[in-house]
Amino acid sequence: MGAAVRAAAADAVVTFLWVLCASALGASTAAVTSYLGVQEGAGGHYSLLVTASLLSVLLFTFDLLCGALGGASFNPTDFAASYAAGLDSPSLFSVALRFPAQAAGAVGGALAISELMPAQYKHTLAGPSLKVDPHTGALAEGVLTFVITLAVLWVIVKGPRNAILKTLLLSVSIVSLILAGAEYTGPSMNPANVSILPFLSFCSLCVCLLQFNVHG
């Protein structure tokens, strides 16, 4: 039981940090391209290169962090896929603790980045949203999640042993699939990522209703 609780706590911390850092990728890309003098809209390829580079650094850092924390995870999809592929065999009690811990960490990270993000970069916090009909969106998410899970498992199990090359392959795969899904639902493929925006919207609604009741 103690090991399961520690794993859940590690998942919560890592997911909090992941959402906090990954949500800042858009702002970081904008800051870097602005520093390099790349005009917005004219240097799309440069922006993609910067994003992929930053994501590679982020993935490499979190790979080390997750390893140091005993195999912590920040993506419920990857966690479930590893279990289904036989790469991990956690107990049912551990799974029941770790999934909610990851969701709680994601919500905490989203709340933190929404408060810490400078005003000029607030627009970069836009997350996944349905841009097509629900059936098409569900199909797109299913296909994209299947492909990214397959790609991640292949890179981890059959890919190169070099950690840097492995991280580069993962980042290129993720950026490519985010671009492929941009016209459907945007950067999703992670249940924790999808759940945080509705939660924040719900919190905003509660605050507005509370203010209305107090002042009304």
TrEMBL record:
Q: What is one Pfam family matched by this protein?
A: MIP
Q: How does it sit in the membrane?
A: Multi-pass membrane protein
User: Where, subcellularly, is it found?
Assistant: Membrane
Query: Which cellular component appears as one GO term in the record?
Result: membrane
Q: Where do the TM regions start and end? A: 12-36, 48-72, 92-117, 138-157, 163-182, 194-214
- What UniProt keywords apply to this chain's record, in alphabetical order? Membrane, Repeat, Transmembrane, Transmembrane helix, Transport
Which molecular function GO terms apply here? Answer: water channel activity
Query: Record's superkingdom?
Result: Eukaryota
Does the keyword field hold Repeat? yes
Q: What family name appears in the similarity comment?
A: Belongs to the MIP/aquaporin (TC 1.A.8) family. SIP (TC 1.A.8.10) subfamily.
What the protein does? Aquaporins facilitate the transport of water and small neutral solutes across cell membranes.
Instruction: Please report the name of this protein according to its UniProt entry.
Output: Aquaporin SIP1-2
Question: What organism is recorded for this protein?
Answer: Miscanthus lutarioriparius
Q: What is the lineage of its organism?
A: Eukaryota, Viridiplantae, Streptophyta, Embryophyta, Tracheophyta
